[in-house]
């Protein structure tokens, strides 16, 4: 069974002490590849080095809204050059976060829109963060046009999911779906088009219900797979095959 973790922050310091061991556990669990999105310009060099050192890691470069205080106009200006030189699989992680207090909404919008324009210009997919901002995210994608990608850790409604699908966007589903209290998300995952579904861990964050309170890691993708398959009444093999194909197709990875 071959899986791709469509969203893993495998470059962060949480994995510095045992990155090789974590990667070995992931591979033993069938996780053959990971998409590793950036969060701020200061970490782009580290992300580049980690992905270069470990086969199966695929970098994306972007500016995450939760790191807004660290972002500068020159970081946006530098992003096209990084994309031109490094040939990442996507732009991101970028987006909007109206949940965290103190993050100026208009400044978020400025960074978000410019990154979408860069992704469109380079013909790359985007990896989106949309927390309490799904409706505005959809409106922004529709206004700019010519985009494709994934809304990671999706928490919106079935109608919002449908609109995103029509716009060419997938939904990233990870640890939150394993919690029984996440009834709306579970209903969505049970009914959504399989072609729209990507699996993720968001390591080291958002551990599954069986791993709560611990550092998440890509090997836990198997537990996300297990729950998604059960919710849909389909085999794990079927879900693994489809989601791996979806992820490979979106990011231009080996199938």
TrEMBL record:
Family annotation (SUPFAM superfamilies): Metallo-dependent hydrolases
Listed InterPro entries: DNase_TatD-rel_CS (IPR018228), Metal_Hydrolase (IPR032466), TatD-like (IPR001130)
Keywords: Hydrolase, Metal-binding
Highest taxon of source: Bacteria
Binding site for a divalent metal cation 1: 7, 9, 93, 202
Keyword check for Metal-binding: yes
E.C. code: 3.1.21.-
Family recorded in the similarity comment: Belongs to the metallo-dependent hydrolases superfamily. TatD-type hydrolase family.
Cellular-component GO terms for this entry: cytosol
Binding site for a divalent metal cation 2: 129, 152
GO molecular function: hydrolase activity, acting on ester bonds; metal ion binding
Gene3D superfamilies, sorted: Metal-dependent hydrolases (3.20.20.140)
Name of this chain's protein: TatD DNase family protein
Keyword Metal-binding assigned: yes
């Amino acid at each position: 069974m071959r899986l791709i973790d469509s969203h893993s922050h495998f470059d962060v310091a949480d994995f510095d002490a045992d990155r090789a061991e974590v990667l070995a556990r992931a591979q033993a669990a069938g996780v053959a590849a990971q998409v590793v999105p950036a969060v701020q310009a200061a970490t782009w060099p580290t992300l580049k080095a980690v992905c270069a050192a470990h086969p199966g890691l695929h970098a994306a470069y972007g500016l995450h809204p939760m790191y807004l205080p660290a972002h500068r106009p020159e970081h946006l200006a530098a992003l096209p050059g990084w994309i031109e030189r490094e040939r990442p699989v996507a732009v991101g992680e970028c987006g909007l976060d109206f949940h965290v207090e103190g993050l100026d909404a208009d400044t978020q919008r400025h960074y978000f829109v410019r990154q979408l324009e860069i992704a469109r210009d380079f013909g790359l997919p985007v990896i989106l963060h949309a927390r309490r901002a799904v409706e505005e995210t959809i409106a922004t994608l529709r206004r700019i046009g010519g985009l494709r990608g994934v809304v990671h850790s999706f928490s919106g409604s079935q109608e919002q999911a449908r609109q995103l699908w029509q716009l060419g966007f997938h939904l990233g589903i990870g640890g939150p779906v394993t919690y029984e209290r996440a009834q709306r998300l579970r209903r969505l995952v049970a009914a959504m088009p399989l072609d729209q579904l990507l699996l993720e861990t968001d390591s080291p964050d958002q551990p599954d219900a069986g791993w709560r309170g611990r550092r998440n890691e890509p090997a836990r993708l198997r537990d996300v797979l297990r729950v998604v398959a059960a919710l849909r009444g389909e085999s794990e093999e079927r879900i693994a095959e489809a989601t791996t194909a979806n992820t490979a197709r979106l990011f231009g990875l080996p199938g």
